[in-house]
Write a structure and sequence with these properties.
Blueprint: E1 6-7, E2 13-15, H1 17-21, E3 30-33, E4 36-39, H2 51-57, H3 63-69, H4 73-80, E5 83-87, H5 98-108, H6 112-137
Parallel strand pairs: 2-5
Antiparallel strand pairs: 1-2, 3-4, 4-5
């Protein structure tokens, strides 16, 4: 085990963020997806999206990118074979997790009324102005 690596009582290997960040070379490429650590080194050349996509995420959190692409269940199953451990619990607050991103996104979305009310008001004003303009022209 590495100097920063720990093993939990239930057998899960934990890696510190600093150790994962160092694994961003062609010889060793690790990424984090939803707090799990993946060694994708041997998969770089086989990745359907190209190795550049994985290399951009190397040594860091790829959760959002992985979820945004909409990987198939087969891809998720294949990814499961590359798990080597988990991000140490003390380092999890140092990265934005997918769950936090969803909560933030939901809070930032405008409510339903602004999605409908504003366009209806704008359309009404345009219609009113059009009628006023055409009535003056007659």
């Amino acid at each position: 085990m590495g100097e920063n690596e720990e093993k939990s009582p239930d057998g899960v290997r934990y890696y510190r963020l600093s150790e994962i960040e160092e694994q961003n070379t062609f010889k060793s490429t690790w990424i984090i997806i939803n707090n799990k650590v993946y060694d994708v080194t041997k998969f770089l050349e086989e990745h359907p999206g190209g190795e550049e996509v994985l290399r951009e995420q190397a040594g860091g959190d790829a959760s959002e990118s992985f979820e945004d692409v909409g990987h198939s269940s087969d891809a998720r199953e294949m990814a499961g074979t590359m798990v080597i451990g988990e991000l140490h619990p003390d380092d999890r607050d140092k990265i934005a997790t997918q769950e936090e991103t969803h909560v933030t996104t939901l809070k930032d979305e405008p409510s339903w009324w602004s999605n409908w009310l504003i366009p209806v008001l704008v359309a009404s004003i345009v219609t009113l102005l059009y009628r006023i303009y055409t009535a003056e022209s007659e």
